[in-house]
Amino acid sequence: MRAGMLGSLVAAGALIGACRSVVVVETRGAGGTSANASTASSTATQTDPPPLDTVVATTTATSVDVATSTGSGPAGCYDPSGVVAFKTTPTAAVHQMVCSSAQISGFLSACVALSATQQACDGWMKDANNSKCQSCMLGDATLASPPALIVFATPDAQAFVVEDDAACEALVEGKANCGGVLASRLLCRASACLACQSTDEYAACVNQADADPGGCKPIAAMVSAECAAVGAKGLDPKCDGKDFLAKAMNVTTALCGI
């Protein structure tokens, strides 16, 4: 088992505009997320971006802010200007039991997988039967509990999806109260360290972000010693997977599955 929360990414490409090559990346970093195809354990390329326009529009309107940080971190892959935060800090991780396996796999197939289409994704997102599952999976305005999948857009209009393995692991380890703050730290670190190209770079970036008052320091300061120990011995299989889709399925099932 590997140490710490990893939070692999899907790089979802341009939200609006010309199609371009997009890489779906499963990373092997420590303590958060790194995103670069050259250091990933597995990659897959598609010509068109996954159809996340509707997903990002929904999450940006409810749970996630695209914010420019005031931080000025050291040179390297740390980019404080890209820091993204939840509009409000989620509280305890909860197993909500509102998503069937078919709904979870349906969302991943329609909106994230290489075979996804905008029409299929819009159809899933707009289906009233998926509304409760959607709120658990992607978050809502209340953020009473952390979402299973954290979707955010960067200032340069790229979209990313991070599996919330932090909240998942907190729940599995019986430390549900740690879920919200760990999810918040995961999002901050992921957005601040997107440019990192190796595990070592990412580890250094996380340290820089956590120490920067204009970066992730305010969130890192909220993480208690008890919460910081979550995932220290590696991720439970319920919160992990062989690739992004498998891990996303497992994490969402643990937090939202019936």
Q: Give the total of domains.
A: 1
Summarize the biggest pleated sheet: 3 strands, antiparallel
Residue ranges: pLDDT <50 for 5 or more in a row?
1-6, 11-49, 67-74
Give me the number of helical elements: 10
The helix-and-strand class reads alpha+beta
Helical content (DSSP H or I, runs of 4+): 25-40%
Strand content: 5-15%
Shape, principal axes of CA atoms: globular
Rg (CA only): 16 Å
Give the ordered list of helices and strands: EEEHEEHHHEEHHHHHH
**How many DSSP E strands?**
7
Order of the strands making up the biggest sheet: 1-7-6
Distance between the termini: 27 Å
Mean pLDDT: 77
For the structure shown, list the relevant keywords.
single chain; 258 residues; alpha+beta; three-stranded antiparallel sheet; two-stranded antiparallel ribbon; disordered N terminus
